[in-house]
């Protein structure tokens, strides 16, 4: 499957410590999207399902679950479903983000969508709508986005107790990467000012 980035340990993409996979490719192109660099289906790199599940297996004892986002995971639903099934086999929870709606996914993406939904504990649906931008809830950026609980593995109580945050990583080569959810402009101001408030900027 086409992958933009795989991060083995993060606390900024759902409850607990999670392995996060950003898929590459999205044809929705939402205005104001934070991850526009994941749109190009020819970007990123190719990883097999086996390579991804091997990474999950390696860290399974140090994480609580996996999160799929992107990009649009349902554009690669069949392979994503295989990865999620393997993760659940290791006892891990699965969160999947989509710009589609729960009601439309099977019609839009076919049988692969059903397989992915069957291996998902929490679906977060709805495309980002800049005119409905709202950061008051965890993990989502606009009012139309919904939490669809497909199992009781992750409940609303866990979501409500989760606090939005960013993680900032600086590689030895000086490359800066950011992941998470929150006010990006505020983050930029803090970084420029040299702030490192541990409540919302983590390294």
Q: Can you put this structure into words, describing what you see?
A:
By secondary structure, the chain is of the alpha/beta class. It has 2 domains: 2-163, TIM Barrel, CATH 3.20.20; 165-203, no CATH class. The chain is 26% helix and 23% strand. The protein is built from 6 helices and 10 strands, in the order E-E-E-H-E-H-E-H-H-E-E-H-E-E-H-E. The strands form 2 sheets. It has a 7-stranded mixed sheet, covered by helices on one side. 36% of the residues are buried. Residues 197-203 have low confidence and may be disordered.
CATH superfamily of the largest domain: Aldolase class I
What is the CA-based Rg, rounded?
16 Å
**CATH 2nd-level architecture of the largest domain:** Alpha-Beta Barrel
- Write down the overall mean pLDDT: 91
Q: What spatial order of strands do you see in the largest sheet? A: 3-1-2-4-5-6-7
**Termini gap:** 29 Å
What CATH first level of the largest domain would be assigned? Alpha Beta
Number of domains: 2
Low-confidence runs:
197-203
> Which series of helices and strands comes N to C?
EEEHEHEHHEEHEEHE
Q: What is the makeup of the main sheet? A: 7 strands, mixed
Global shape: globular
Tally of extended strands? 10
Could you say which structural class the secondary elements and strand pairing correspond to? alpha/beta
Number of helices in the DSSP assignment? 6
Write the CATH fold name of the largest domain.
TIM Barrel
Helix percentage = 25-40%
Could you write a compact summary of the structure shown?
With 203 residues, this protein is an alpha/beta fold. It contains 6 helices and 10 strands.
């Amino acid at each position: 499957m086409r992958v933009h980035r795989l991060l083995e340990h993060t606390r900024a993409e759902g409850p607990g410590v999670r392995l996060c996979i950003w898929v590459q490719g999205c044809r929705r192109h939402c205005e104001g999207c934070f991850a526009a660099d994941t749109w190009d289906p020819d970007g990123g790199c190719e990883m097999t399902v086996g390579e991804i599940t091997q990474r999950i297996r390696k860290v399974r004892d140090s994480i609580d679950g996996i999160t799929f986002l992107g990009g649009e995971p349902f554009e690669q639903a069949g392979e994503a479903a295989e990865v999620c099934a393997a993760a659940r086999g290791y006892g891990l929870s699965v969160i999947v983000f989509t710009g589609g709606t729960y009601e439309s996914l099977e019609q839009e993406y076919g049988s692969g969508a059903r397989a992915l939904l069957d291996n998902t504990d929490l679906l977060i649906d709805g495309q980002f709508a800049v005119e409905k931008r709202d950061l008051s809830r965890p993990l989502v950026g606009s009012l139309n986005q919904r939490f669809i609980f497909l199992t009781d593995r992750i409940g609303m109580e866990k979501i409500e107790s989760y606090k939005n945050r960013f993680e900032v990583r600086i590689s030895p080569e000086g490359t800066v990467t950011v992941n998470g959810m929150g006010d990006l402009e505020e983050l930029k101001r803090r970084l420029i000012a040299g702030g490192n408030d541990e409540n919302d900027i983590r390294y």
